[in-house]
Design a protein that fits this description.
By secondary structure, the chain is mostly helical. The protein is built from ten helices and no strands. α1 packs across α2, α5 crosses α6 and α6 packs antiparallel against α9.
Length: 274
């Protein structure tokens, strides 16, 4: 029978701190990223202004499209547009996640984290969760404004709109990982923001967001049909308008999951670079 000998504790020598658990680190770091936004009224107001401006401008400038022969019958333009604005707003929040990461890199916060037992995965997940929370706040405010000011009342009702909201957040969160990866490799906020906006511009406008795909030029229809944003917009729109969903939601979630996995791997590798 083998005896187990306890390792004696040396007086005056403490056991090195191994750090808290992953979930605790994510919770604390998420709160750290959210506090500057929630405590600063100016930052919160300006972050809410952008989606509201998009809602006002696009709903008024493009509403004549609802009179075209290719537009779905019996659907108002605001009911058609808002699910798309929800998806595009969520993707823009993903760009902000990347910019926030580069800011932390530049001001030395992440360098201090590296000297502590803090998991790089926790830093990246916390940043994505914080901006996902910001996206949720922005989308809820936008939905309330659309209902009160423009009569947004799609056939899918509250359940359909909530389904579209959750889908938009899932898509925005997945694309956010790509922007986090770009930020981790570029490590410069201005460049990361430019790359993000250059990627978002064709993704948003070469899609089914603002007009039916059939009304686009032939070559642009091909681009819009393979655009991952179009999958999400069509699925969110079907949920809100109570259209047959089919495999649309599943396809959007599968594509989003694939994007998130690729983005997370690239972001983690870029973050670990010296």
């Amino acid at each position: 029978m083998t005896a187990t000998i306890a390792r004696p504790e040396l007086p005056g020598v403490s056991t090195p701190w191994q750090g808290s658990g992953l979930l605790t680190q994510i919770w604390v770091l998420t709160g750290r990223s959210l506090r500057p936004v929630l405590r600063d009224p100016k930052t919160l107001v300006f972050s809410l202004m952008q989606p509201l401006l998009m809602l006002v401008l696009f709903s008024q400038v493009f509403r004549v499209i609802a009179q075209g022969p290719m537009f779905p019958q019996g659907v108002t333009y605001i009911d058609y547009l808002l699910p798309a604005i929800m998806v595009t707003t969520a993707t823009m929040v993903g760009v902000q996640a990347g910019v926030g990461l580069t800011s932390d890199m530049k001001n030395g916060v992440l360098a201090r984290f590296r000297s502590m037992p803090v998991s790089p995965v926790a830093v990246l997940i916390a940043r994505s969760v914080a901006d996902l929370t910001r996206g949720l706040i922005e989308l809820v405010v936008m939905l309330v404004a659309a209902a009160l000011l423009f009569g947004f009342a799609p056939a899918g009702g509250v359940l359909g709109v909530m389904g579209a909201l959750l889908l938009a957040l899932a898509v925005g969160w997945s694309l956010g990982w790509l922007f986090l990866a770009a930020a981790a490799w570029l490590r410069e906020s201005t460049t990361a923001q430019m790359v993000g906006m250059m990627a978002l511009f064709p993704l948003q406008f070469a899609s089914s967001a603002f007009v039916p795909i059939q009304s686009l030029p032939g070559w642009l229809q091909v681009v819009a049909q393979v655009n991952p944003i179009s999958y999400a917009i069509n699925a969110a729109r079907d949920l809100a308008l109570n259209n047959p969903v089919g495999s649309g939601v599943t396809s959007a979630l599968v594509v989003s999951a694939g994007i998130a996995v690729v983005g997370a791997v690239l972001a983690e590798r870029g973050f670990r670079r010296p």
